[in-house]
């Protein structure tokens, strides 16, 4: 997967490369840019919250409403956050493809997700925002890999997060 550092792109421009067990490239994971993220542990029996937004280089065309949207956060001990929306879950507004599930605060899963293609200074990006709830108590080590999948596009970022009083935070200035 994208956390396989043995298959890293040596130039650092594309991020991490997804490899099979034989370390043969399967799909290139692009690097997530502008990736602030936060894990907040719930209190009084409430679920933990994961929030992330960012963008990556994107030159293709995609009907986001007919594509899968997935979140995966891992560390050396395994999966911390894993949630997925199936094709058809996102609906198109004027600028964003969006999803909302108010029950996620109680039941777990993705509360909100939105994606859009955006051009900044002549460069095309895929922008995303997501909030998910669940049991993220496996977030015990600072080095974590965030992966976002939209359709056939995958982007990732492996960095050291900072501990907070109630969880973890990753800010742009941290990398």
General form:
globular
Question: Helix segment count?
Answer: 1
Biggest sheet details: 8 strands, antiparallel
Distance between the termini: 21 Å
Order of helices and strands: EEEEEEEEEHEEEEEE
Rounded to the nearest angstrom, the radius of gyration is: 16 Å
Give the gist of this structure.
The protein has 175 residues and is mainly beta. The protein has one helix at 104-107, and strands at residues 17-19, 25-28, 30-31, 37-40, 48-57, 69-75, 78-85, 91-92, 97-100, 109-120, 123-134, 143-150, 153-160, 162-164, 167-170. The strands form 3 sheets. The protein has an 8-stranded antiparallel beta sheet.
Structure description:
- This protein has 175 residues and is mostly beta strands.
- It has 1 helix and 15 strands.
- The strands form 3 sheets. An 8-stranded antiparallel beta sheet has the order 8-9-10-11-5-4-15-14. The protein has a 5-stranded mixed beta sheet with strand order 3-13-12-6-7, with no helix packed on it.
- Residues 9-18 have low confidence and may be disordered.
Give a topology summary:
Layout: E1 17-19, E2 25-28, E3 30-31, E4 37-40, E5 48-57, E6 69-75, E7 78-85, E8 91-92, E9 97-100, H1 104-107, E10 109-120, E11 123-134, E12 143-150, E13 153-160, E14 162-164, E15 167-170
Parallel strand pairs: 3-13
Antiparallel strand pairs: 1-2, 4-5, 4-15, 5-11, 6-7, 6-12, 8-9, 9-10, 10-11, 12-13, 14-15
